[in-house]
Predict the structure.
Amino acid sequence: MARRRKGREVSGILVLDKPSGMTSNGALQQAKRLFDAAKAGHTGSLDPLATGVLPICFGEATKFSQYVLDADKGYDATIRLGVGTDTLDAEGEEVSRADASHINREQVEAAIARLRGPLSQLPPMYSALKRDGQPLYKLARQGLEVERKPRAVVIHQLVCDDFRQGETAEADVSIGCSKGTYVRSLAESLGELLGVPAHVSALRRTEAGPYRLSGSITLEQLRVIAEQGEATLDSVLAPMDTPLMSLNRVELGESASFYLKQGQPVLVPNGPRDGMVRVYSGGDSFLGIGEMLEDGRVAPRRLVNH
């Protein structure tokens, strides 16, 4: 007999404001326990030092977590100039130091301008990327450094919001970037352009796809809400189709919905000609995502269980 999965079947997306000093998985597990959820997953790790937007998918919403993972991100960061660390952030050991007192805001803004647009980034050794099944950060802790492939990223926005001059100077920046961007590597690149070591001393994610910090909730707030019961707790979840708003919407009648749920492509009158679509039945009943075929039918690709 199959073992019954522990926890309740709850589906939706929690926009968590992750606290500093906690791993993304640690935050996920706390939220999962508060919801007593049978299934949950996050949508891309934040470093323990970092705070801010960490969307957590529950239940059927986990089927669409890749859309959040692949989406653009936004960050507020403080970059400390004049001190380099082995992890490229404030959690690491200091490995280099240079006087940054000669650097002014104009120089910082000129260097920042060179970092906007398409970039090739070398992932840090202290990262969750894996080599032969081992996270790079575990190899780095053993004093090992392995070859990494540069990855193409795009910095859509990079603005200096404030600058504090000094022997160890600080630049507060706001960043809009593509998936896979390492803000720590961006800080290192800024330091290189200015001729001094650099690292990230504070990092806060402000956006992840459609989710904003203004709509996030802390673990402390979640604990208070949890005391009011499951219905109140579930009301803070975003609908599971919110990561998919960039896809065209297709609505099906009762009969077509039935056959689609049986795994059969169905005709969509006047539907999109191609591409992935989000599919609904009877107005707002979300069925999942499908793919438009050349003959005007939509084929099921990832459907939800209601």
